[in-house]
Amino acid sequence: MRQKEIKTINKKIENGEATVMTAEELCNLIRSGEKLTVEDIDVVTSATKALMSGTLAIFTIPIAERGAFRRAESLWLNGIPAFPGPCPNERLGLVDAILYGTEYSRTDPNYGGGHLFRNIVEKKQIEVEVKTSEGKTIITSSSLDEMDFARMLTTRSVYKNYAAFVNPKKETVKTIFSVTGLNGPYREATICGCGELNPIAKDPNLAVIGVGTKLLINGAKGYVMGRGTRSRQNNPNLMLEADMFNMNPLYMGGFKTSESPEVIVSCAIPIPIISEAILEAVTITDEDIPLPVMDINNREIITNSKYSEAWQGNDIVVKYHGNRCIKTSCEKYCEKLECPVESLCPTGAFSIEKGRIDRSLCFNCTVCVYICKQNVFTAKTGKITVNGKEVPITLRQSDRLGAKKLAIDLKKKIEKGEFLLSEPVDRINF
Ligand code: SF4
Ligand code: SF4
Fold it and tell me: 340 CA to middle of ligand 1, Å?
């Protein structure tokens, strides 16, 4: 039963009187033994930053003057194939195009849609190649400022909880859930999901998140469109959309895996505290959120862990100790040395020449921690117990630091009265 209306919360937001907390702040209060009522809190900001394969974008790109070609047959943006249409845009000199985040460049298999989306939001010039129905090839360039339309859609995102993966077999498995290939038997684990910060973990029955809920995608205002693909009652996910013009590149990008490039997307959803039931739901902490552990070979659940194994008592930020690097401390030996971290870092954040991590790109995935044998990179990442064996977490495909920052951004926007809550126009059914 509702004890508070969204319009009442919005009035408080407009008057600068709303009490807003991030999911992390709330969970820390709960851990310290605090008891809260519906009157104590108006909004909890939840968020996730993770790899979201089901991401695509739609662009309208100027190509040539009107009448220069009849229609586009094929199209590449920075070498990545896109689908022209579905509207044929006959003789308009422009093209509507759909590009999948998991597609990659013809010339560089490590450059994928996620990298391109970030480059577009950074307003970089993008090379555009079009094959026309007349058989002509047009090569031009474009940037976000010249595009009339740029919108991101996610087909399945913000899972209630995702999973950890292990490999029970001896053979290493090439997979999107590993950067170097997942080693077995049970030698390492990879995890996905932001636990207690995750939006649907905070509203598992989708009681307040519905069709039309306003949210942030990569820092820009967007909306929930409805149920995501393969969404199930026990593990729902959402379909989302947002205009790309106001996105923040820090929340997005590409991520190399041992299989193909993936897409980094960040989402933050405000949870209005309108009833005891919602308050109870948002107070769930990592310690009580299940983390299913799956066999990478068949995606069957082997056991269940908890998100506290991944996120409580561990470091969410990777530290860099440049003085320990043998390349910088031993010129003679290192002249020929290639740094494996530089080539394997999934976001391209580490440069041995610059001797630093570019924090605007770093995902805190911890790949460097396990590749570099000189402890140049450190982070406590935790272990998952599978069949009585402790398996170290060697890769995080969710960036809890990034999620935390986006939840704080949303909180600030609400506190400043820049973001009002929306009443869903419909429930999401499964
Ligand atoms: S792997 Fe580590 S020690 Fe070796 S060059 Fe790279 S950062 Fe330096
Ligand atoms: S944690 Fe290390 S490997 Fe991962 S993105 Fe950052 S620098 Fe690269």
Answer: 7
- What are 404-418's pLDDT values in tens digits? 999 999 999 999 999
- Ligand 2 touching residue 367 (CB < 6 A): yes
Residue 34 tokens read as: 């605090």
The candidate with the shortest Cα–Cα distance to 345, out of 365, 328, 323, is 365
Write out pLDDT tens, residues 371-401.
999 999 999 999 999 988 999 999 999 999 9
Longest CA–CA span in the chain (Å) reads 72
Residue range 284-305: mean pLDDT, rounded: 95
Q: Is 367 in the pocket of ligand 1 (CB under 6 A)?
A: no
**From the CA of 342, how far away is ligand 1's center (Å)?**
8
Q: pLDDT tens-digit profile of 33-84?
A: 999 999 999 999 999 999 999 999 999 999 999 999 999 999 999 999 999 9
- Domain locations along the chain: 1-160+198-284+399-430, 162-194+286-314, 319-378
Tell which atom from ligand 1 comes closest to the C-alpha of 337. 5
Instruction: Determine if ligand 2 sits within 6 Å of the CB of residue 357.
Output: yes
82-86 long-range contacts, CB within 8 A, separation 24+: 84/130
